[in-house]
Each structure stands twice: as C-alpha cells, then as structure tokens.
Amino acid sequence: MKIQLDFQTVCLSLLLATLGLVAVGSATIYQTDGIVNAYTIRHSVYLVLAVCAFAAILFVPLELFERTHIPIYFVTLVLALIVLLPWIGVVAGGGRRWIDLGVFTLQVSEIARFLIPIYVAGHLARAHDKVQTSTLAAMKLPVWVGLVLLLFFFQPDFGSAVLIGLVVLGMMYLANVRYRDLSILGLIGSVGLLYIGYHRRDRIIAYVDTWTHAQDEGYQLTQSLIGFGRGEFTGVGVGDGIQKLLYLPEPHNDFIFSMIVEETGFFGGALVLCLLIWLVFRCFAIAKRALAMEQRFAGFISYGAGLMLGIQILINAGVAMGALPTKGLTLPFLSFGGNSLIVCAGLLALVCRAYSEIQAVEAKNKNLNK
Questions:
Q1: What sections of the chain are H helices per DSSP?
Q2: Which of 48, 80, 224, 295 is the most buried (most CB within 10 A)?
Q3: Per-residue pLDDT tens digits for 163-173
C-alpha cells in the first residue's frame, strides 16, 4: 500500500522537534565545558533515532498491531516486572525505572506509554459492543492494565501510572463505555490518587504553600515561577535566561517549558502550547474520521495517541506554571531525552498510518462507486 502522510501531523511534529533542539541547546549551554554542546549532540542523535522509529512503525499495517495486542500487553507486563529486579533495573533519581542495555538505558514507563494504548485500542476494537453493554467486559480492560500500573507503584513512578490510567479511562469513555462503569473506575482511581498523595504529601504541602518551602520541596517550582515572571510578554531573549544557571535544576527536562517562557515570554510559550494542542486535535480529527468509517482500531489508537500526548502536555505545563503538584513528566518533542522523543514519534507514526489506511479505504470506495 502506498503511504500517504498527513501533512499537518508531520509538519507540526518536525517544527516542535526543531524548537525542542533549540530549547535543549539553550537550556544546557552553561553545562558544557567546551565549544561543542554534548547535550545538543545527544539530542540530535535522539532525533535521528526518532525519525527512524517513525519510518519503521509507519510501514507496519495496523492490522498486525491489532492482531498482536495481547502479546504486546504481556511484553509490557514482563518489562514492568524485570525492571524491579535489582540486578537488571537501574536506580536513578530515587526510583528503579530503567534497564541498562549498554548502549542506552530503556525507561520502561516510556515504552508502556506506547504499548498500552495499542493493547487498549485492540481490546476496544475487538470487544466494542461488549464493553458498551457488559460491566464484566468493561472491567476486564482496566484490571489487566491496572496490574502494570501497580508494578509502576513499586518503581516508584506515580506520574506515569496516573498518565496511563487517565489515557485508558479517556479511551474507554470515547468507546462509549457506560457511565456507571466509568464511575466505578473513577472511584478506584481516586483511591489510588489518595495513596499517591499520602506518599507524596511533602510535594502536596509545597504545592499548597510554595513560597514557604522555597528552599526545600518547593525549590523547583519557585525557580520555575521566577522564570515565568522574568519572561513577561516577550522574554529576555533566546540564550539569555538565567534560571538555567544552576538555579532551576534540570532545565532541559521536566521544566523546559519554564525556560522557554523565560527566554521567549508569554508569546513564545503560548505559541508552543498552540502548536502542541494543534497536534493533539489533529490526532483526534483523524480518530473521529476513522471511527466514522468503521475503522475501529485506527480510530481508537489515534485517540489513544492524542490523549497520551495531550494529558502529558497538560501535566507538564501545569506543573511548570504551579497549577499542579510537581511531577516528573517530559514535554513531548521539547524535553531532552531519547526514550520520550522516540515514543512520541512512534505514537504519531501510528496516527499517520491510520490516516494513510483510511485514505486508501476512501479511494477504494470512490473507485467502486464509479
């Protein structure tokens, strides 16, 4: 089948990836000893790998993902299990979340952000009618996904568990699962959030009274807010921000949006958010079109990709602006990190494949009607 790329999705992702490369270079310019910025070089390599992953996934028929959605789930489950083994999982940042493969480290939760939506989309496509009428069929999905999320709690990686849980709930809502069943899941999820809140109560307290805790748990957030304040409307200029001078920890990762706003101001930050939101709604538009043509897996996987990117954007930007408690989630296509960049590219490859397949179906229908 001839691949037809969605122009908007490809252009938006390339533009965001380019902006991300500039942002990472600016955020890390004072962390390098020589003329060559090692972070920029590494991020450039990640971009090349992301493009390769996009191209590889793009040529895989969605039918293959749909047929193998159950094995894909078990691969995710096995990865979530083995990362907890002391002789395999790598401890960093207070959690055992990585598997060292020698050449690079694999973050299991990032891989799950790509694989879990495939499993959910496959289940919803195959049992579409059942999940709308049977509580047992509807609960089967969150039970299996919940097992993986439970393992994330032991890493611990609460942020990824919340993100994936919200995506699954959103996909079930879009599959017209009954409100009664969704309410049950919401209640169970609330218990999980209370558990997270208890174990992260220091962060909650710092979020509620940030400036009182500016030297301890609220340090990152206060420095992020200072960056927003310095940016004003037009910013201090690309490369001229000072929060990255060892004030804001890891400005190229979770708080890169604060650095962007400091240097480009309200207008620059608003532009970045508009591009990200446009990309998410493009995924939703393709999903809606696919479902209208009875291409259920294509529709649900596109919705899943859009939800994964959209909720991640919401959480990251909300944390940087102080609207949500501090939680380590990257900003898609903009934050430094190979795992995140490759997974985001993979999700968009699935969306572009869905677009190509529905274009082929439309062309075939037109030929039959002639």
A1: 7-27, 38-58, 62-67, 69-82, 108-126, 128-133, 135-154, 158-174, 179-199, 201-208, 219-231, 256-292, 296-320, 338-369
A2: 224
A3: 999 999 999 99
